Amino acid sequence: METFFNPPSVAIVGATEKPGSLPGIILKNIMDMGFKGRIYPVNPKYQNVFGLRCFPSLLDIPDAVALTVIAIPAQFVVDTMKQQAQKKIQYSIIISAGFREMGAEGTEMEEKIKKISIENNIRILGPNCLGILDNYTNFTTSFLPWERVSKPQKGSLSILSQSGAFAIALLDLATQEGLGIAKMVNYGNRMDIGESTLLPFLADDVHTKVIAIYMESVDNGRKFLEVAKECSRKKPIVALKVGKVAAGIAAAKSHTGAIAGRYEIYRAAFLKSGIIETNGLEEFIDGVKALSMQNPPKGNRILIVTNGGGFGVIVADHCSENGIELPPPSDHLKEKLRSKFSRFYVVNNPVDLTGSACDEDYYNALKTCMVESNEYDAAIIIPLMAPKGMTEKVVALISDIMKLSGKPAVICTVGGTFTIKVKQLFEACNFPVYPSPERSVKAMATLLKRKLLQNGHPLT
Amino acid sequence: METFFNPPSVAIVGATEKPGSLPGIILKNIMDMGFKGRIYPVNPKYQNVFGLRCFPSLLDIPDAVALTVIAIPAQFVVDTMKQQAQKKIQYSIIISAGFREMGAEGTEMEEKIKKISIENNIRILGPNCLGILDNYTNFTTSFLPWERVSKPQKGSLSILSQSGAFAIALLDLATQEGLGIAKMVNYGNRMDIGESTLLPFLADDVHTKVIAIYMESVDNGRKFLEVAKECSRKKPIVALKVGKVAAGIAAAKSHTGAIAGRYEIYRAAFLKSGIIETNGLEEFIDGVKALSMQNPPKGNRILIVTNGGGFGVIVADHCSENGIELPPPSDHLKEKLRSKFSRFYVVNNPVDLTGSACDEDYYNALKTCMVESNEYDAAIIIPLMAPKGMTEKVVALISDIMKLSGKPAVICTVGGTFTIKVKQLFEACNFPVYPSPERSVKAMATLLKRKLLQNGHPLT
């Protein structure tokens, strides 16, 4: 697998400087990323492409080549594969579309490629995909220009996605949410390499802490179950399964030729293998974000602290819906809190610091409840930034005291420009921030699910 | 009611230039908004406040006064009310907190004020509230500085909110979502004026097209049901009821002293009176946004158009979950579409224009399906902006052709900086944009609910 992510040498078939050409953009993206391996443009039309020597065909390259990247029209791919077999190149990423997802003719071409690859022991990623982005080896086969798609920062999240558009959207979302990326793999039609091969590789990848999977179908059900079970013991896996119902299943078939299969079977498999399933794009990215930034809480005793009473009420409602427990503080703890705060403040769970709250009130509430007491395992903190008493300093105060407590927290805050600035400051301190009460609650629920799994409990 | 929103003259009790003082910020906000009525600062300490003549007490004001705004500490409010009664001022907005929500002592003070108001026929908004923002009369009693809270643009959405923090958050969200505001009312402890009085007023307000209500409890169940039924015939009402389950009900009691009551009763009342209920902050603002920007579709035949197949699949899944029908195009319509597009494009529902899509493809797909054919009532459009073929021009093309069709559409798009720019362009054309598939589907479901109500069908 390593060769797909860190090839010592790569041939870009069809490379050109012509604007808008896929192989051209891919070559440019690889060079822009600062990839250190050898790069061989292949195109009979040119002597040089972007300053690199260009070869008429794969067979003309004098050195050994580890990997080809093929992004030429579908009807020319079979011939390229034949050359690749002759040159004994063992790995190929086929970006080109126009195969199985296009019906009979495309399926036939795909079968021919498959035959060549099996006979010559060539491993294939794709076709109909974006391929790879590795943020540590600086290798990519993405054909999307960086001025349209955020170049993600280095981090610990790795993404497996059957859909290219979805993979790209996740890169953008990750950047917006302050999340760093380790690896992204989009395998499209998944002729050969799929989830079952990639998952064990990511399980052992030192840079990957959390794995996010978008799936329409799975390559090999039995093997996937096995490797997912093994992998989820080490690292959280969060999945978004789409093509669940008739309309979606039909759409998935048109999209990647995937036979989505019965959703109930997937659901059972996820539960059995310790995969955390999410419903919809936001729950998916929110869960991934929580798991990337915070550890699971030791137990299910959650404290809400807010300066917006209404938000406390909504969070409390959603906690109940999501099986999160909100025990009230003990009389002793209430006394301690009362001694620190104005009599207007509501000393309960939620702790309501009201519109009069200042930064230090958050510090004091969290110190009293999360550090000096052992009544709570984690906190949902809702600092609303509209009142004058609230400033950017609240970020360092909350971050310091929560880190001292050793307990996890998720943040919810809603507001305009100033709030967005505060969100980014929290995320720079590794606290996941959510723009609605319900999303912060679901993120906490995801952390709790991970804890159950770590304790060996099956999900239900 | 008019006097609360457009008082010919208003006295600000406790007005001062001292930074951070509530009456001071309120006075400044009123002046900043450009309010045209007469303003009387009241404070025995000063001769002038912000250049206006200041009076030692309400009784010293030589003219008649229509409304008082009271934002002084709770223990001084009773005396002020006595003066107000003597001066025969008929309306009062009491911003001050520290009443019923604080237990027995506060309740006692609140009862005293209530007694004075009943005996002297004084109508009261509050206490424990932000009061009013009217974007057409430029009157406000908000005590939050505009550098922290977005000053909303003029528009057609009016907000009723028991929670102040929530009302403020909605103002910020509305600005982010490109939504204009007509009126905002936050009534906190709701000693006198509440939903049942405000709703008929908004029903007749020329500037209000859509009404959003945040409620922990209701002032008068029977009357509310009656006025809501009447109002929802004219204008959509979207509600977020919080304090639904034990934890939330307890939190609501601490917050505004509200007895949240049994949620099932509320649910039944909403259904009966034609109020569209939403679950969570995002569904609430998303539904309000859809209803403010688009008309309900004539029927439930929805077309999905996308250039990201995976997104089409997720939207299709969520459509099924939300009762939205996705009929495939007729053979005739499929033929027409096929004649216009590359053979790679998927001509079905979703129409998948693939990563090769350009702006004009959207125009052609929508023209063929929404203008030249009568097979669909509305569209969920998912333009992903990562591919080079997609530019800002897609906004005008989609907007023009959908306006020509006379049918509503909601937009889903996910991405980075460029996508956010495109979102704002769509919203300037009155197309609601959502950052996830599931939210765009729920927004369309809200439009469909409104159509059912207009047709006289009860919601279920």
Distance between the termini of chain A: 33 Å
Please identify the oligomeric state.
homodimer
Number of domains of chain A: 3
Annotated CATH architecture of the largest domain in chain A: 3-Layer(aba) Sandwich
In words, what does this structure look like?
- 2 copies of one chain form a homodimer.
- Chain A is α/β, with parallel strands linked by helices.
- The first copy, chain A, is 41% helix and 17% strand.
- Chain A has helices at 2-5, 22-33, 77-86, 104-119, 164-176, 195-203, 221-234, 246-256, 263-273, 281-293, 309-321, 331-338, 359-371, 393-405, 417-428, 437-454; strands spanning 9-13, 38-42, 48-49, 52-53, 67-70, 91-94, 123-125, 131-134, 139-140, 154-161, 181-186, 210-215, 237-241, 276-278, 302-306, 351-352, 378-382, 409-412, 433-434.
- In chain A, strands 9-8-11-10-12-13-14 form a 7-stranded mixed sheet, sandwiched between helices.
- In chain A, strand 12, helix 7 (221-234) and strand 13 (237-241) form a beta-alpha-beta unit.
- Chain A starts with a helix and ends in a 6-residue tail after the last helix.
- Chains A and B meet through helix 5, helix 8, helix 11, helix 15 and helix 16 of A and helix 5, helix 8, helix 11, helix 15 and helix 16 of B.
